Here is the input.
Amino acid sequence: MTPERQNVGILVFDDVEVLDFAGPYEVFSRTRLEVGTESRRSYESAPFRVFTVASTKDPIRATGGLQVIPDHGFVDAPRIDILVVPGGFGTRELLDDATTLDWIRAVSEGAARTTSVCTGSLLLARLGLLRNRRATTHWGALEMLSAIDASIDVRKTERVVDDGPITSAGVSSGIDMAFYLVEKLCGREVADETARYIEYPRR
Amino acid sequence: MTPERQNVGILVFDDVEVLDFAGPYEVFSRTRLEVGTESRRSYESAPFRVFTVASTKDPIRATGGLQVIPDHGFVDAPRIDILVVPGGFGTRELLDDATTLDWIRAVSEGAARTTSVCTGSLLLARLGLLRNRRATTHWGALEMLSAIDASIDVRKTERVVDDGPITSAGVSSGIDMAFYLVEKLCGREVADETARYIEYPRR
Here is the structure.
């Protein structure tokens, strides 16, 4: 049981991979401390408050074209307890985007947990947040992760790697990363019951 | 190999469950006939063109608050070959919404395949599209599905049911539904390779 609702801030940007952000969004936003379908109709027993954040509140286009309006821009985002940095081809451009990198660094310093999905870990690596740590990414970006920071112990076969920052493998493994964290914070029963609610066989 | 690109229209509405629409969106939009990561950087070998449709182009709020701008309203949507009707608490209101029901019926008549995720099947049932057919829905809505149309052979333990309209169980099973259809239309190899791309162990 978490003492108070935690804020989950999910970064979004042009060419963010849809399932990278939508998977964790679904898991954190549907978690309830009370079992069943009725508890999902309100936020009463919700341990997390989930919102999207982008550099500005202008709509972004995810991979494939999905248009999302960010809930907050960098300047007006509320306190973030759990930061989720998703991946997608859009991360490549962000590797040189000082505004976004500075924001991730600042939020990460204040957050209880910093997490990434897929190639989101490249951004954490660029900031030195994975130095001398175990981490992973999408299978197509494993070499790039090493290239950005050779000190990273790159895990090629694990879906979720927790070594301070929590990184996960490609796309759909963000769902597993979210459940991993739900279990850590709210217990096994809450995580499993939420998985049952969204009919997701946890791995 | 599909002869030409097929249009996948995904219905969105207030209180649509995030993963219900985002799962199929991810699968259909990332499918490529050419293997590897590079092929995902363009639409060259993409067998599907995916877009969201709502009653109007005004932003909708999915469950949990995610804000999405629909690509099209009912009046300006392009031809739809594959219709995806997701679920979520918002479907309850749509059961009495003549505009949405009429649109689903009209699109369904012209589409090659009509599909649903989770409680989206309640809307298909309301239209009589599942009469005397096998179908499924979220475990919390199995009785409601029968109550809407007692002639439906409700499958309580299957994730994906294909009996003309393709219905799927709760939330995350929409991903499996999409892969089922990708395999049917593009072959097993394409479906499996796309699953590997998004690191999703197919069920």
